């Protein structure tokens, strides 16, 4: 039996292959361009599912207080102390309406965990003490003083560095006070706006493996994200 | 007509008054930033062989108060001991300071930077108005201070204070003996 090839079918097959190849090239080009654009834009844009950090204090007395809407990824939870709590702790000697509201953010990760033993310090091993292995939890403390537009006095000392720095995403600046202990030490960020004055405090701590805490840039971004 | 001598006397008086005022203000700033505090602890010996660091009194109590919040040190009795020494060293290591057990100016300043006013800056709170609040958020520890017109004072919580230190009492940042803060005027 003789096989006869219909040339019209062969031509159609070639056209389909060519069309498919062109479509594939176009799809690949679109995907590549999209990926390039996304990769270039990612550092600038927050992820779509980024939550408002104010949700960490929802259902607390700080819910209506101006506070950071953005916090570093390492923040895992927050605890709140309101003026009434603070006043009670010191025996109600101060009127709550002049006191600040405190939000303390806990940070993820082994370097930020509390490692202070329950035993008396005299029994702590020297090697652990000297390496920075025994340290308190690293936190970020935020205090809002409503109705106040002043900053507290500037700290001074040989190891103190004070600088006014802009918020990374614009909208203002803050006084940054660093105690410069060989790259470690406390950091205070203080600023004001029309509604009040504010403070962020943390410690860039030394650990046996390196450092605990967050970058100064992240504190400034927190400061610049104030809302409420 | 005013004589040259009178002008000189007036000018001299103004200069002296300015110098006294500047010295006072500088002293007050030094107190605020804790840079005026004395060395405490293992600070070696001086030229005459005496110990440089103090080992009891209000400044030791202030350090113990700080360390009660950061490193769970207790009790606070205003006397330097092995527990205080070890906790100071752990504090120094954590904050990047040389680990030597001597609370000199740099360690004082580092401790000061952790203390935060509880009251808005333009208000004058009654009682303790400065708080060192540290530790995990849900199990944090407090150390209270009072920034009075004349000096700072420690204000130690019950459960941390131990005789001769009484809780909820303002103790000045003195060398020795331990004394309550009393500002004149």
TrEMBL record, chain A:
It comes from the Bacteria. Keywords: Membrane, Transmembrane, Transmembrane helix. The chain crosses the membrane at residues 16-37. This is DUF4245 domain-containing protein. It comes from Myceligenerans pegani.
From TrEMBL, chain B:
Keywords: Membrane, Transmembrane, Transmembrane helix. InterPro entries: Peptidoglycan-bd-like, PGBD-like_sf, PGBDSf. The chain crosses the membrane at residues 6-25. Residues 56-111 form the Peptidoglycan binding-like domain. The keyword Endoplasmic reticulum does not apply. It holds the Pfam family PG_binding_1. This is Peptidoglycan-binding protein.
